């Protein structure tokens, strides 16, 4: 008898099969003497669509809402049905005695496996492989300590609750908004509060009124000092006050009242998780979050030079530590050879700053693998992204950046001026990466660094000149992808309730794997636009936020759900109670939407009429570019933006001249030609 092992992805299945010595290959599984290893392709089974319950739901009508099936059912996803049925056949084999769930160690990984089991009606025993890394030792140890499958029932319940709640709220509210306002509007627990943050930021920018302020800087000859009041503030909002201070101190003698010399160090950065890598790639390479994920997936799957991409951890587990020398050796080529060399000259030192089992959930941080690096095999974008990962990995294992900071406090006529200098003792990890403190990581009023020569306390210094600088307060910056990812990862500051704020700390809005997709969906749905690197809301996005329930505008709903789901996973809360509350909540949301008296006005109306119902069509984003869509959902006609009456491309000026020549040639020849010319003329003049 054999055990059937179900992994989440083919790549993981191959690694497990190799360790378990399953060498017989089939297109959908690998088999050995004791195990058969197969794989899902992410989710193979999902919740049924509304029309699967009742044919009437094919039409979207307000009177049919809310949709509340007694029990939400499962269906096999058509696109990957072949793999589901291959697994189903394996499950029915008489020599299979048990199933070992080897999907990702987390809530969604549990759901992937359990839904396959439910759809296939699995009745035999099952156990759970629970590991945080895919090394050979971790796999062997995991199989030697398999857990009872039922030990994760609560985790499965939490996963089902999340999925069913998203179905009930998301589908019902989306249909209610779309039918009520006769527009393509959709709302969800993650997408809508993300849009809400962008819309709210835009509102802050629009209502911001800049104010003039003044700062004062003195030149003492070999150094300069910046004015600060007793509270450390450097801004004066009264020009008269600034002028009085400047007149008082100009050409005067100052006294150095304090000299502080401090030895400081900056610890190496943490390794990358997906969101941090997406942030850094956006800031430094200009990559979108989606592009970073796509390039990273290629480095992982095709070149096998980095570890699993969709991770939310910046740490590694203890079982990875023995592999660090071989990973460094694998990247010691090209520009990295000299960077790695110092690490081989002494034993590697690892601390809890990088190695911490308690901070590794499904997968450890993104680091290089032991696969020898072949830079020539990588394309330009892959080289750029790999460079970030490799340098970050080397930096993590390098020494701290150490320096001495000198602060001089100078008093002139009772006014205080501050000066800061820095002397580098050891570049440490900063010699590896050019990463600097980003402008948004500090305040605009921070004291600038300068070279300071040796001075003594009570030294007298002469004011050579005094400059009063005028500036304006600035509005908050629009989100770019880097800052939006940060806000999605840590939305707690948008939540007033302290307990809820705490509950969302571990999750945020979306997951590391879905945040890029959420941003792209907001763009595709024309809720936001890219303006260079900035993300700005459209009229449609602003209107949606004004139309949806207040609950859906902020991260609080996600925080509340995560709080309950965490309790369900621990067995402290009831699945049935949660779903009952969600059903009641959904009905309230639908009633609120239907009763809304607001008006939605599309701002993307084109000058092209629908060929079927003659209404002016809307210009929308399609999968292959801009599309024209009829605003009447009952009509539903869509066509490419540049399509003309014949279904071809809209004619250019050159083509128009050629068409007129063609009409003329037809008209000038026979009566038949004349008739054809008239028909052609009418057809070409028919614009949509």
Topology record:
Layout: E1 2-7, H1 10-19, E2 24-26, E3 29-31, E4 35-39, E5 45-47, H2 50-53, E6 74-76, H3 81-91, E7 96-102, H4 107-119, E8 126-128, H5 136-144, E9 147-148, H6 153-181, H7 191-207, E10 212-219, E11 224-228, H8 239-249, E12 253-266, H9 274-285, H10 289-301, H11 324-330, H12 337-344, H13 380-396, E13 401-412, E14 415-426, E15 449-450, E16 460-462, E17 465-472, H14 481-489, H15 498-503, H16 515-524, E18 528-531, E19 534-537, H17 539-547, H18 556-569, H19 575-595, E20 605-609, E21 616-622, E22 625-629, E23 638-640, H20 653-668, H21 671-685
Parallel strand pairs: 1-4, 1-7, 7-8, 14-15
Antiparallel strand pairs: 2-3, 3-4, 5-6, 8-9, 10-11, 10-17, 11-14, 12-13, 12-16, 13-14, 18-19, 20-21, 21-22, 22-23
Helix pairs in contact: 4-6, 6-18, 6-19, 9-10, 9-13, 9-14, 10-13, 20-21
Brief characterization of the structure:
With 688 residues, the protein is of the alpha+beta class. It is 38% helix and 18% strand.
How does this model look, in words?
This protein has 688 residues and is of the alpha+beta class. It is 38% helix and 18% strand. The protein has 21 helices and 23 strands. Helix 9 (274-285) runs antiparallel to helix 14 (481-489), helix 10 packs across helix 13 (380-396) and helix 20 packs antiparallel against helix 21 (671-685). It is globular, with a radius of gyration of 32 Å. 34% of the residues are buried. Mean pLDDT is 87; it is low at 437-442 and 644-677.
């Amino acid at each position: 008898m054999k055990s059937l092992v179900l992994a989440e992805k083919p790549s993981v299945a191959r690694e497990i099969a190799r360790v378990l010595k399953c060498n017989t290959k089939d297109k959908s599984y690998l088999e050995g003497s004791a195990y058969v290893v197969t794989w899902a392709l992410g989710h193979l089974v999902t919740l049924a669509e509304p029309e699967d319950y009742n044919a009437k739901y094919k039409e979207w009508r307000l009177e049919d809402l809310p949709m509340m099936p007694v029990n939400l059912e499962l269906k096999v996803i058509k696109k990957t049905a072949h793999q589901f049925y291959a697994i189903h056949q394996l499950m029915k084999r008489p020599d299979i005695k048990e199933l070992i769930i080897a999907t990702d160690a987390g809530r969604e990984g549990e759901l992937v496996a359990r839904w396959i089991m439910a759809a296939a009606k699995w009745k035999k025993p099952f156990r759970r492989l629970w590991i945080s890394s895919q090394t050979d030792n971790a796999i062997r140890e995991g199989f030697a300590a398999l857990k009872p499958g039922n030990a994760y029932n609560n985790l499965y319940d939490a996963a089902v609750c999340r999925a069913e709640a998203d179905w009930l709220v998301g589908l019902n509210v989306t249909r209610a908004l779309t039918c009520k306002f006769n527009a393509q509007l959709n709302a969800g627990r993650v997408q809508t509060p993300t849009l809400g943050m962008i819309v709210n930021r835009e509102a802050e920018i629009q209502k911001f009124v800049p104010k003039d302020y003044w700062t004062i800087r003195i030149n003492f000859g070999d150094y300069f000092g910046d004015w600060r009041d007793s509270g450390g503030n450097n801004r004066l909002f009264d020009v008269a006050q600034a002028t009085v201070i400047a007149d008082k101190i100009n050409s005067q003698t100052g006294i150095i009242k304090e000299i502080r010399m401090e030895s400081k160090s900056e610890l190496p950065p943490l390794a990358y998780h997906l969101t941090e890598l997406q942030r850094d790639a956006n800031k430094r390479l200009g990559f979108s979050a989606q592009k970073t994920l796509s390039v990273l997936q290629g480095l992982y799957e095709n070149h096998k030079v980095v570890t699993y991409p969709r991770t939310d951890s910046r740490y590694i587990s203890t079982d990875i530590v023995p592999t660090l020398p071989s990973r460094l050796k694998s990247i010691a080529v090209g520009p990295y050879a000299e960077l790695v060399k110092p690490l081989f000259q002494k034993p590697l030192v690892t601390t809890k700053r990088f190695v911490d089992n308690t901070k590794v959930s499904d997968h450890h941080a993104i680091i290089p693998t032991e696969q020898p690096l072949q830079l020539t095999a990588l394309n330009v974008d892959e080289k750029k992204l790999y460079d970030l990962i490799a340098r970050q990995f080397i930096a993590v294992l390098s020494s701290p950046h150490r320096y001495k900071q000198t602060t001089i406090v100078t008093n002139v006529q009772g006014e205080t001026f501050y000066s800061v200098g820095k002397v580098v003792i050891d570049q440490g990890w900063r010699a590896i990466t050019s990463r600097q403190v980003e402008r948004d990581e500090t305040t605009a009023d921070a004291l600038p660094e300068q070279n300071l020569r040796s001075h003594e306390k009570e030294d007298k210094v002469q004011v050579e000149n005094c400059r009063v600088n005028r500036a304006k307060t600035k509005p908050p910056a629009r989100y770019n992808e880097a800052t939006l990812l940060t806000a999605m990862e840590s939305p707690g500051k948008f939540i007033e309730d302290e307990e809820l704020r705490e509950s969302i700390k571990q999750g945020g809005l979306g997951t590391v794997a879905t945040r890029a997709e959420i941003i792209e969906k907001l763009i595709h749905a024309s809720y936001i636009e890219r303006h260079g690197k900035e993300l700005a809301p459209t009229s449609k996005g602003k209107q949606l936020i004004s139309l949806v329930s207040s609950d859906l505008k902020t991260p609080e709903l996600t925080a509340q759900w995560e709080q309950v789901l965490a309790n369900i996973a621990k067995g402290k809360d009831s699945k049935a109670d949660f779903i009952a509350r969600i059903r009641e909540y959904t009905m309230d949301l639908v009633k609120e939407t239907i009763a809304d008296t607001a008006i939605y006005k599309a701002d993307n109306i084109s000058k092209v009429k629908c060929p079927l119902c003659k209404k002016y069509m809307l210009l929308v984003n399609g999968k292959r570019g801009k599309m024209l869509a009829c605003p009447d959902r009952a009509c539903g006609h869509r066509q490419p933006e540049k399509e003309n009456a014949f279904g071809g491309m809209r004619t250019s000026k050159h083509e128009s001249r050629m068409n007129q020549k063609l009409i003329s040639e037809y008209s000038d020849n026979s009566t038949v030609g004349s008739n054809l010319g008239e028909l052609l003329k009418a057809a070409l003049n028919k614009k949509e």
